[in-house]
Every structure is written in C-alpha cells, then in structure tokens.
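Hi C.,

You asked whether I'd gotten around to modeling the 290-residue construct. I have! Everything is below, sequence then structure, no commentary in between.
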Amino acid sequence: MQFKRTKGLLCAVFAPVAFAVCVPVLAQNVDTAGKSTQQIQSQAMAPDMRASKVIGKQVKNPQGENLGKIEDLVINVGTEKLQYAVISSGGFLGMGDKLFAYPAELFKTSGAEGKEEFVLAVDKEQLKKAPGFERNSKPNWSLNTYRSQVDSFFYKEDTTKRTTTGRLMSASDLIGKDVNDRAAHSAGEIEELVVNFGNGRTYAVLDFDKAWNPDDKLLALPLSAFTFPGRPDIDIFLNLQREKIDMARSFDENNWPNLNDAKYRSDLSNYLSSMQQQSDNTGRSSGASK
C-alpha cells in the first residue's frame, strides 16, 4: 500500500487491485494567507448579520464576564470589509465609560438570528491598555491617526494586518443615509448593512424610492455600487444604471430572506460579484466622460 497526497486529500493506493481511498487532510493545512484550515472553516461558518441588530449586543470574554456592549461598527468602504467593532467598557475594570475599537476578526460569534453571542478573547490587562476614546470625542475615521493606534496595539508584530488603505465609515452614519443617482435625483436610502465577523464581508441593503421601484422594496448591493463623498453633508451616489439593477431580487421590508441559508449565500455571492463588475464599468465610463 502506498500513500499519495493530492490537493486537500490523502489517498491510500492498494495494489495489485489498483484502487484508492481518499480522505480530506485537515490538520496543518494552510492557505496562501497563512491561515489554518480550522480558521478558514470558522470564517466560513460565521453568520451574516444585520448591523442594526448587532449594535447594542453584549460582549463577554471566554470566562463569561461582561465586557460591555457593541456601540457601533466601522466599515472599510474601500475594501468592503467590517474593520472594527466599537464597544463600551461600561466601567469594567475601572476604565470608566470609554469606547474602544477592536478588530472584528478578534470576535467569535455564535447563535441563531436574534440570539447572537459575541465573545472577545482579550486578556484583561490588554483591555486596560488598549487605545480608547471618550464617548463625546469620537475619532475621525477618515484619518489614519486612531486606526493606526488600534492596529499597532493589536498587531504589534504582524504588520500585514494593519489597515493603511480604504476609507473607514461607521455603520451608524451609513444606515439611513440618502442615496442619489448620477443625475442627483433621489434613488433611495441605505436601509441596512449586512456584516460577517468571520470573513469581514459587508454589503448594503438599499431601500429604493418609488420612482425607481413602485413596490418600494429592498435590494442587496455591494458597497462598490456607491460613491461615498468626503463631506458628511453630501449624499451618497449610486454608480449603477437603473436598467442594470435586477429588481427581481428585491424583497419586502417585513419579509427578509434567511441570510444564512447556504443556497441563498452562494447565490448572493455570485450576484454581488456581478454587480461589482458592473459598478466598476460604470465608474470607468463616468470617469472617461468627465
């Protein structure tokens, strides 16, 4: 009997009959980003969640002690990823009611929709030393100052994880934000953001105006479908042309799809990728015409 390794499989080849039995190889399997198979599987299993439902959730440490609650989420609209979760300490460990931004990947999530649990595996002493800010003095996410402090603290040695590109915006600022088309006509507003603490993927759910959709329904769109102006008083722009939007995928506000149904997630991933490509093409065409 001989053993041969193929991609992701260990095969036992039996002679002289010449047949093989293959089993998955899970241990010590590492992808190109240096993540173990267990980490990859954990990311794939992390649930998609509505940002508005995540805000306000309690956070505990692995010992079950309350660390505070999630006050906001910070999205990198350039990379379309969930970057940080902002939690309040609630006076824990004598730190006062300060706010702290923690990298989203440090959280472990579990539980059914509406009953999600959030665990932050951070040492108590590390919590005390983490860079925080006062509730009435929130950082300007457009600047690199605070994010650099956070990344340097949590990723002291792994500089590859530090965020140097992409604009950061808070979920509380994005949800409810008006969206216009390229002619500056109202197209709707961002009803919701859907986030995943495992792989970081974030997408928007747009509530279209009746001029765009008479049925007044919601539709998932990638963040690349939007242009986010630097000034907070300017509305977001929609990069997609109306005829390119598949309204057949829209749904009622009171009848959301099961975000974590395997078929829905797979189908949605393909759809968002298609919309991203259209957004890129529209953006290039708009840029070329200016």
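If it helps when you're writing up: The helical segments are 37-45, 51-54, 124-129, 145-154, 171-174, 262-289.

Thanks,
B.
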